[in-house]
Amino acid sequence: MPARVEQKVLRIGLIQGGKIIEERLIRRREPVTIGTAPKNTLVVPASRLPKTFTLFDVRSGQYHLAFTDQMAGRVSVGQSVVDFASLKSQNLVKKKGGLYAYPLPETARGKVSLGEVTLLFQFVTPPPEPVRPTLPKEARGGWVKSIDKFFTALLLISAVIHFTGGWQLYHTPIPTELSFDQIPDRFLKIIAPEIPDEDIPEPEGEGEAIKEDAPADEPEDEPADEPADEEEVKQRAQSKEVQEKVRSTGLLAIIGARSDGASGGFGVADIIGEGGGLGADLDEALANVSGVGVATSADALAMRTGVAGGGGTAEIGDMATEGGGGGKVATGTRKTPRISGRITSGRMEVESTEVDAGSINRFIKVRMKSIISCYEAELKRNPALKGKLLIRITISRRGTVADIEIERDTLGSATVVNCVRNRIRPWRFPVKPEEDTAVSIPFIFAPSS
Description:
alpha+beta; 6-stranded mixed β-sheet
């Protein structure tokens, strides 16, 4: 079985100022770009090169050398050496626009001059990949040895503390919320302890009335209680007085208030108490409410005005402002002047010969109204606004917008620039280049005459 011939790789040397500044092996068959932008294959920041230029393009798995009329160089194939001028005169290159493409066999080598930068290239057999050094098994520690003991101990202690606190909170009973009618009794128990009714001494007169109402079959002669101590009787009287003060203050006093009958007012207890609004008719509940009258049909919509002819009452129907009465209310109209602008696009530059510039131009013209709306919105605030924006759009391989740069701005409006960026960013162009391609488009803004 014949040995497999390994595909050669492209070797490139970059010379600037008489010194080799970079040497590169392009192991994968992919386009090679050069320029000042950081995304290029060969980056030369301190030069007069363009931002990006595809020097070696890949078509059907073969490299093609791309050059323009301003570039100089030569290519050696076998024993013959041909410069760029001879390649063009002998029709050995394909021309597309202002760019020439020459297919390179794997035996080719050559030189390309790009101003102050010179590039040398040739195809070489790829060297073997360097073996990645590995440590011996004895030097490699396991995952147990790599654990930080101090940090692990702190982590375990923290986990135990948090777990214990969560377990206690989970098993702690939640206190039940007190209902409204339970709150006053709780406060009374805190402020003054309850005193049983049988321990409170009865005032004079009440005992006699009870004896008179008592049944006849009860024995009249009962053993008298032992006289209570004067200090104990005094303490019980003070506790009773504190309870009465609590019931007559705050929210309890408002809820339990009743009308005094003399002033004609009413209390909440007259409505929600027994015989009040909750247990009786609404007319009976509001019978004692004073200061509020029920409007009749004669004065329901009347109001005091200073109408000439006598200080009477005027109804809502008389409150007209147009025609002297009864007409419509005049509000007037306001017209906003229409301010329009126009945008013209200059010559578009596409930095790739593989992309159809016509389809991109038609795509942008269809969406020109969205850019005009950004300009007209700012033109209302500044009618003298005009200028030029040179926008560089980078189109990705999927046709989406990868990057937007403002290369020149004479318009001087950050609002319009940000609006135009937001309009362009979601665009999806009808082209899908083999690599990210930049398109420079000048837009000229001017108000319509």
